[in-house]
Specification:
By secondary structure, the protein is α/β, with parallel strands linked by helices. It has helices spanning 20-31, 92-102, 153-156, and strands at residues 88-90, 109-116, 122-129, 137-141, 144-148, 159-165, 170-175, 179-182, 189-191. The strands form 3 sheets. Strands 3-2-5-4 form a 4-stranded mixed β-sheet. A 3-stranded mixed β-sheet has the order 1-6-7. A two-stranded antiparallel sheet has the order 8-9.
């Protein structure tokens, strides 16, 4: 009796045993390679996928493997969106004071941020930095650069920065249209939604 796959493979040599089933099992174990002795897989130079005609009927011969899938395409970079209007404006006195800071022996830029502080919730935080952070917004006006921390951008956007000096203090002051509530001392504020 012929099996469905017998036409693809050559018939095993006849054995001297009386049982045909024991002959097949003995022949199949004697011709199969050991685990470390399998033949290498060869990728053909042609662009055709492997078919039944390309594959060898002998299991011990090198077989043809499919080509690996093509590499994925690189993702396109999205264009950066730039605001038409600056996130913060500087008064002439603030620009003058910032220019004096940049002319110092160690020129540094100022980063404006907000912190959770005070009785109203948020407080302005100014710090000196050497270079902008990865997500900082750079505002340039009259040749002076000011950095805005990305976390503080929505609280500060549309504000005006001024330099005020009086008999008791000298500081940067902010006029922020986003403020909905402020504490009595003016140190902290709340931004409404």
């Amino acid at each position: 009796m012929m099996s469905a796959l017998s036409h693809d493979r050559p018939a095993p040599p006849p054995a001297a045993s009386s049982s045909s089933s024991s002959t097949l099992s003995a022949a199949s174990t004697s011709t199969s390679p050991a685990l470390g002795e399998t033949p290498p897989v060869i990728v053909p130079p042609s662009s055709k996928p492997p078919t039944a005609r390309n594959l060898s009927p002998d299991a011990a011969s090198p077989q043809v493997a499919a080509r690996p899938p093509p590499a994925p395409k690189a993702e396109r970079l999205r264009p950066k969106i730039r605001a038409q209007k600056a996130a913060i404006t500087l008064t002439p006195t603030a620009v003058e004071r910032l220019e004096n800071l940049l002319k110092s022996p160690t020129p540094q830029m100022i980063r404006i941020g907000v912190r959770n502080k005070g009785c109203a919730g948020l407080s302005y935080h100014l710090e000196y930095v050497e270079k902008p952070g990865k997500f900082d917004e750079v505002v340039e006006q009259d040749g002076v650069k000011v950095l805005i921390d990305s976390k503080a951008l929505f609280s500060i956007i549309g504000s005006e920065m001024d330099w005020k000096e009086d008999a008791l203090s000298a500081k940067f002051a902010f006029k922020n249209p986003n403020i909905k509530d402020a504490c009595g001392c003016g140190e902290s504020f709340t931004v409404g939604s």
